[in-house]
Amino acid sequence: MQPHQLNPAIEPQFEAVNDYILNHLGSTVPLVEKIGHYIVESGGKRLRPLLVLLSANACGYQGQHHVPLAAIVEFIHTATLLHDDVVDNSDLRRGKDTANARWGNAPSVLVGDFLYSRAFQVMVEIGNMDIMHVISNATNVIAEGEVLQLLNCKNPDTSEDAYMQVIIGKTATLFEAATETGAILAGATAAERDALRLYGRHLGVAFQLVDDMMDYLSSAEEMGKNVGDDLAEGKPTLPLIQAMKAGTDAERQLIRQCIRKGGLDDLQPVLDIVHRTGAIDYTRDAAQRAAADACKALQALPASSFKDTLTQLADMAVDRTH
Question: Are 156 and 244 in contact (CB under 8 A)?
Answer without folding.
Answer: yes
